[in-house]
Every structure is written in C-alpha cells, then in structure tokens.
Design goal:
single chain, 648 residues, mainly beta, 7-stranded antiparallel sheet
C-alpha cells in the first residue's frame, strides 16, 4: 500500500531554440510514478491530454499551477487549481497551456516528493482552431443518484465560463433543458444536477464558447422508456412552490432577536438554533406578542442544531417575535410558512438591537403588500418613528409607542399608497429590532429580511439567477441628504462582469434588473459600491411572480468563517449554499454540516477569483430534517443559503 500525501506535476515547454518554461504543482508521495503514454501527443494550445501510467496519487488538494513565458518571463493567465484535474492512481487529465506558441514542444513529467521523478513524455503544439469538447461517457441515467449525472471526456475548459454549459435534449420532442446546478466542473469531468424530466431518452452534450464560436461535443444518450422507481434514499427535485433565503453570520452570539412571526390562520413559525461550539448550549427562547410573553428552555449539544416551533408558546397568534438567550455563542434564524406552505420567508436573526434601522426593499403597488415589524425587548416603553423613501423622495410614516417587551407591525401602504419602490428607516428612543415582510397577490409568494443598523459603501449579495424563469433585482436605498453614485459588478462562474452605474437621489431608492446585464446566467452574485454609505438588498422572483420569491439584505463585511442555522434535505425540501469569492485571488472553501446527530464533513474546493458557486447540501447530508452549515475559507468571502420546497 502506498502512503499518499500529495503530488507534483511539472510540464516544461521546450521552445525551438531551447528555452524552457515550467508548470509546478506541489505535493508529497512515496513511490516513483511511471508514465506509459500521453494522448494525444500533439494539438493546438489548450488541448486536453491524458497521461496513463502508475503511482499517480489521487490527490485533490493541489497547489496552483502557474505558467511563465520563457520568452519574456511574463506569467500566463492560465492557472490549474485543486479540483480541476481528473486524477486517479493510473490516469491524469490536464490542459496544455493555452498561451503556448505553435511549433514549440512540451516535456511532461510527474514528480512525487520522496519518490522521485517519472520518465518524460512529449507534446507538440500545432496551429489550428481550438478543439471542440469531447464527451466519452455519461452516467447514471437521469432518474437516479439524486439527479446527479457525471460526464467524462476532454477539452472542457478548466473553469466554466458564463456561456459554457451542458445541454440536455429530449430524443422524442427535441426540447432542451439546462442543469439545475453544476456540483463540479473540471478539465476532464463535469457533474450536473438534472431537472425533473419526463421518462424519455435524452442526449447530453457539452457546449462551450471559444473566440465567439460555439463548440459542441458529440451527444451521449441516457434515459429509459420506462419509469424506474427512484431509490428510497433519493431526494427528488421539488415543485419550488415556496422559497426562502438568508445571509449567514460570521459571529455567533449569546443574544438574538427575531421581530417577525405568526401562528394565525395555520401559519407556522420555526426558530432554528445552531450550536457550532465545542460545549452544550443552554438556551432560553422568549416569545413576545403585543400583549404577553412566554419562555421555553432547551439544551443544544455541541456541533448540532435544533428547531423550536412558536406554537409551543402561542397558537393562532397573528404577530409573534422571539428572543433567544444562550450561555455560549450560537447562531439563530427564523422560518415562517403559510397557506399550507404555498408561501414562506426566512431570515437570520439580529444579534444587537439599535435605535436606527434601514430596510431597502418594499413595494405597495397592486398585488403587493409590505409590513414592517418592530420588536421592543426593553423593560420600558419605546417611542418609534418610520420614514419611507421612494424614487421621488422621503415620506413621513407613523409614530407609535411600543410597550415594554412587545412588538407591532406597520402596513407601509397605509402611508405611501401604491408605490413600486419604497424603502424604510426606523428610528427609536431605545434600542429595538426591525424586520420587513412582503407578500404577493393572494399570498402567492412572500419574502423577508431583517434591517441593517448602519450604512456601508460596499455590499456583497451572494445569491442571484437570471436563468429561465428567474428574475433578480438589486435594491439600493440612499438615506443620505445628498445624492450617491453607485456601481454594480456581477460575479459568475466565469468571472466578473461590469454592471450599471447610477446616481441615486437623496433619501430615495433605486432598483436594478440583473438580467439587463447578464441574461441567462444561472449563478450570479453582485457587489455594490458607492461614494456614500447606502443599503443594498436583492430580491428574486420565479415564473413571472406567479410562484415563489426570496429576498435578503446584503453583506457589509466579508469573512473567512460563516454560519447558517437553517437547512433541511427531507423529501419536499431543497437546501443550497451560495458562496461568492469577490477577491482577485482564488479562495479555498471547506464545508461542515451540523445535524441533530452531530457534525458531518462537507465538500472542500477552490473557487476562482471574482466568481460564485452553488452547493446542494443533499449531495453530502441527505434525508436530514435539521442541518446547519459552517463554511470556512482561506480568503474573506460572502455566503448565503436558499431553500425551495413543496406545499403540504
């Protein structure tokens, strides 16, 4: 048995006049590798090659490969990273440098720390068009394995570009479908999560764009003429009747405040407590209404998560807030479901109350309703005032006195009438907590977000999609007495895309349609920058606002650690974690999931600079009623979580 730690691959380019450039991926291993063949042995720059041999370590945590030009010493932009190699004990798949000149020769060796250097094999660069992707195999059929299909081949880009994708085509109807997500994309292997498909035979092919030219692989056919029963441990895609979303927090705390909630008319409100610490957390949940409070106590084991339903304290109550107090730092969120789970909204809690709150989103046009929930957790009354900010300027809202340990909701339309764009500022003479909930016509959808207590000149919003059926909007509130100049940058799996710039008038709000810049992008994050402190949120609507919707305030400060309390992978639930790397350098991220039975190690991989990626929790923790997430990174990043599900 070989003791494998890591591996080094060196690819040297020998120019016609003898100069050399080298690619070096560091690692450790104890046996001498042997290369039996390289295929193909020639081709244009960027060609995918396969090395076969022995004693190749199945290493997945490689350092980056950096290529320098032997002619001028300049570094090429191509970087091979962890996760972008198809790598086994007997096979290595990698791309030859795309910046090499035709007529040069590459000398390829595999070096193992402590085990020596392999024999040499050679690759000749030729001129010609870029190679089309090659699809050799796809498995299993699209009706099994939790909807995950693996595609193997060559000449895939090592990083998925904005317009690179897998296409699924029905043999019967010719209809084309897009994957729901790409759990991984590498040089020789792509893993996709297929949508819910009718029983049929389907052609899978890889489509990439190179120099404004579409290059498609030859299809591989999968599927069945009969509907096989799904495996019992498989979570099938949901109808996405409802959706929720929330940012994470990078700081567990001992106090949490949750202003919004209801148990009236069949509404369900859940308090989700994640304990990422190494000791048991003793927590006290206090439910607060307009005319009374009730307290419940519980213990949360280390590295685990628990759920409490507000109906344990109050049933059939139209307005319920909650406060969670713990003896050790924890993470707390709240989820609300209504109309037999045909709508839902969810948000991280507030860990510190304030006398000033901003809420960027809001709409009171026909078919929309917006309410602001304010919670007074103090032992004395609090005087609060609301101010609304529209595209035409500010409007004075209501003022009211909230009794001690109480809460109240305010209907925005009662002041502004019908307004498509309206933000809110809440001020108080004592520290309070504020949150906003929105509903579509006949409660078709709902979304929600806590407020923020301070402004920022930079905001990060990890979630976003402009794929078919999705509409994503960025909402920017300028509560300053003078105009603010804002700029948007969108981040996709293929890198950053410059967005719009606009001047927002004093004490007003503006809305930006992400699809106007990056249409058809399944995964897109946003960075908002401004010359003044502003507030930014993001709202997503599905199926032309006839289905579900999500919303979340942005993130002001990036962090290397993130916590998300909510998550469920039972049948009828989908839980996704969205990671945005807005840095100019790659970020190595590692997931840990916390369940009722303890911690479970999740995926670990490197995200390219200025990019975003989506992770399905069910790919690691399946059929779990309670699962929280911790994301760790070697670079400061932004993290959110989105959930979708079926009605009751």
């Amino acid at each position: 048995m070989v003791d494998m730690k890591s591996i080094r691959v060196i690819v040297s380019l020998v120019l016609a006049f003898g100069m050399i450039m080298a690619l070096d991926v560091s690692a450790v291993h104890a046996a001498t590798p042997r290369i039996n063949s390289i295929s193909p042995s020639s081709g244009p720059p960027g060609t995918t090659v396969t090395l076969t041999g022995s004693n190749f370590s199945p290493e997945t945590d490689c350092e980056a490969v950096v290529v320098y030009s032997a002619t001028n010493g300049k570094q090429y932009t191509e970087v091979y990273r962890s996760g972008n190699f198809l790598w086994s004990e007997t096979k290595l798949v990698l791309n030859m440098p795309p910046g090499a000149k035709p007529g040069t020769v590459a000398r390829v060796t595999v070096e193992v720390w402590g085990g020596g250097v392999s024999n040499d094999v050679y690759f000749s660069f030729t001129s010609g068009p870029p190679p089309a992707p090659t699809l050799l195999d796809a498995y299993p059929d699209p009706f099994s394995s939790r909807g995950i299909v693996t595609l193997e081949g060559g000449d895939f880009p090592d990083v998925r570009g904005l317009n690179d994708r897998v296409v699924i085509r029905s043999r019967t109807t010719g209809a084309e479908y897009q994957p729901e997500s790409y759990p991984s994309w590498s040089i020789g292997q792509i893993r996709i999560r297929v949508p819910q498909l009718a029983v049929d035979l389907y052609d899978f092919f890889v489509s990439i764009q190179e120099d404004n030219e579409r290059l498609d692989s030859v299809p591989v056919t999968l599927g069945s003429s009969e509907d096989p029963p799904p495996p019992q441990d498989v979570v099938q895609p949901t109808s996405r009747t409802w959706a929720t979303d929330s940012i994470g927090t990078h700081t567990p705390a001992k106090n949490w405040y949750l202003p919004e909630g209801s148990t009236a008319n069949g509404d369900e409100t859940y308090i989700l407590v994640q304990n990422p610490g190494s000791t048991t957390a003793d927590v006290r949940l206090t439910y607060i209404t307009e005319n009374g409070t009730k307290t419940v106590k519980d213990s949360i084991p280390a590295d685990s998560r628990k759920t409490h339903e507000a109906s344990e304290a109050f049933t059939d109550k139209g307005g319920i807030s909650a406060r969670v107090v713990s003896d050790v730092p924890v993470v707390v969120e709240k989820a609300v479901y209504g109309n037999r789970r045909r709508w839902a909204h969810e948000s991280i809690g507030i860990s510190q109350v304030s006398t000033n709150w901003y809420l960027a989103e809001g709409c009171t046009a026909d078919g929309y309703s917006t309410r602001i929930s304010v919670m007074n957790p103090n032992s004395a009354p609090s005087r609060v005032k609301l101010t609304y900010m529209t595209t035409s300027g500010p409007k004075d809202g209501p003022s009211d006195t909230l009794p001690a340990n109480s809460r109240k909701s305010f209907d925005v339309a009662g002041t502004v009438g019908k307004e498509w764009s309206v933000s809110t500022q809440v001020t108080s003479d004592k520290p309070v907590a504020a949150e906003r909930a929105m509903f579509g016509e006949s409660a078709t959808w709902s979304h929600d977000s806590v407020g923020v207590s301070s402004l920022s000149s930079t905001w990060y919003l990890a979630e976003g999609s402009t794929g078919p059926g999705f509409a994503t909007w960025i909402l920017v509130q300028n509560p300053n007495p003078r105009s603010a100049r804002v700029s948007l940058t969108y981040m996709t799996p293929g890198g950053a895309v410059a967005g719009p710039e606009k001047t927002i008038g004093p004490r007003s709000r503006e809305t930006f349609d992400v699809a106007a810049t990056v249409p058809g992008a399944w995964e897109v994050s946003t960075r908002v920058t401004s010359d003044l402190g502003v507030v930014a949120e993001r709202a997503i609507y599905l199926d032309n606002r006839q289905k579900d919707a999500t919303d979340s305030v942005g993130i002001r400060t990036l962090s290397k650690e993130w916590y998300l309390a909510e998550g469920c992978t039972l049948p009828g639930f989908e839980s996704w974690v969205l990671v945005q790397n807005p840095n100019n350098a790659p970020a190595k991220v590692t997931f840990t999931y916390m369940t009722a039975n303890g911690a479970v190690r999740g995926p670990s991989e490197t995200l390219p600079a200025n990019s975003r990626k989506t992770y399905n929790i069910a790919d690691t923790v399946n059929l779990s009623a309670e699962v929280s997430t911790q994301v760790s990174s070697d670079q400061p990043i932004a993290v959110e979580r989105a959930m979708y599900g079926d009605p009751h």
